[in-house]
Specification:
Helix content: 25-40%
CATH architecture of the largest domain: 3-layer Sandwich
Strand order of the largest sheet: 3-4-5-6-11
CATH superfamily of the largest domain: Rieske [2Fe-2S] iron-sulphur domain
Structural class: alpha+beta
Bound molecules: FE2/S2 (inorganic) cluster
CATH topology of the largest domain: Rieske Iron-sulfur Protein
Shape: flat
Strand content: 5-15%
Mean pLDDT: 84
Radius of gyration: 35 Å
């Protein structure tokens, strides 16, 4: 539909269409009176009030959907239990609460955005206006002044005379970016499979991180949370920070009858389970244990893991369960590892490839 189809009296008096249909605010003397734009196509909503009404209703519908989705978000937050797991194809078993919150909030935001876009495209002002811009180039007088100021500055700094200063300054300015380039070295070499192995080996004793004493099975009581490291790893060791970040353990004693996961039970010792302390989201140390529910919580982004069910994720952004370390006791009653973790510890993205 072109502007020629619009009665001239329907256009604003000071913005009449030219012979191409383009609308301009310029008068005859204005240099942008004809900006050379292609003929302007008016929207159906500009010339048909019923079409405009339809667009208005569509925008109102989208905003209403957004309101309903927000009400749904609040209802889901109140009504769905935190630990409810649902099966959603093709996502599999996921937290019902997370799914409901994500869907409703996503819908609420999408509808606001879609409504605003539809409103802008169909109902807001659609005039093409030529906007005059001034020349970017400075005037000859301004350029001459800058040139003179620069020469004056160079003269006052005596750079031309003080060649030693000039040369050393150029040398310093040339070299200083090299420090940034040198830091790039820290990006390599690739870790390859180093992230897949920890210090845990068959027969390594579990040492209490607080007391530095090897842990006996009898030291671990129901309801307590103990942090452990491999024997032989001391704080003054060169590699302590790297190794502790991979090998740190959480030790908890559960009632064997409360352990739902069969493999977890087999890898435990009389209900004592050992899990990586490093959250599988982005690697914060997990530190909160709720004895009644057997849940552990990561303080960084609230990922929650169920220690009575293979430490699977029941809430939060973590991508997968905490890795379990298989443990037993030696002849003297000390807890010992029966091997390394059988999967990488820490953030899920280590598993790539
Ligand atoms: S690091 Fe644990 S939830 Fe983000």
């Amino acid at each position: 539909m072109s502007s020629q189809d619009i009665p001239e009296e329907n256009l604003p008096a000071e913005r009449a269409a030219d012979e191409h249909g383009a609308v301009s605010v310029a008068d005859e003397k204005h240099p942008f009176a004809d900006p050379g734009l292609p003929p302007h196509e008016h929207r159906i909503q500009d010339i048909d009030e019923r079409a405009a009404k339809r667009s208005e209703r569509a925008v109102a519908f989208l905003f209403t959907m957004s309101m309903l989705a927000t009400v749904g978000f609040i209802a889901a937050f109140v009504a769905i239990p935190v630990d409810e797991i649902v099966y959603i194809w093709p996502l599999g078993h996921i937290s019902g609460l997370n799914f409901a919150l994500g869907m409703t909030l996503g819908l609420a935001l999408f509808c606001i955005g879609a409504g605003a876009v539809h409103w802008a495209r169909t109902l807001m002002s659609d005039e093409e206006i030529a906007d005059e811009r001034h020349a970017i180039e400075a005037s000859p007088e301004d350029r001459a002044k800058v040139h003179a100021d620069f020469k004056q500055g160079a003269k006052e700094s005596a750079l031309g005379r003080r060649k030693l200063i000039r040369n050393t300054m150029l040398g310093a300015l040339t070299l200083v970016p090299l420090s940034g380039i040198v830091l790039l070295r820290d990006l390599g070499p690739l870790p390859e499979d180093k992230l897949r192995h920890t210090l845990w080996r068959r027969g390594k004793l579990l040492v209490n991180m607080n007391t530095d004493e090897p842990l006996r099975a009898s030291d671990v009581t129901v309801g307590s949370l103990t942090f452990a490291k491999p024997e032989g790893l001391e704080e003054h060791d060169h590699e302590f920070q790297n190794e502790i970040a991979k090998a740190a353990l959480m030790i908890v004693r559960l009632e064997p009858k409360d352990i739902k996961d069969k493999r977890e039970l087999e890898w435990s010792h009389e209900g004592i389970v050992a899990y990586s302390k490093i959250c599988t989201h982005v690697g914060c140390p997990i530190s909160l244990y709720e004895q009644q529910t057997h849940h552990v919580l990561c303080p960084c982004h609230q990922s929650t893991f169920d220690l009575s069910d293979g430490a699977r994720v029941i809430f939060g952004p973590a991508g997968h369960a905490l890795p379990q370390l298989r443990i037993g006791v030696n002849d003297e009653g000390y807890l010992e590892a029966l091997g390394d973790f059988d999967e990488p510890v820490g953030p899920s993205f280590w598993e790539r490839g």
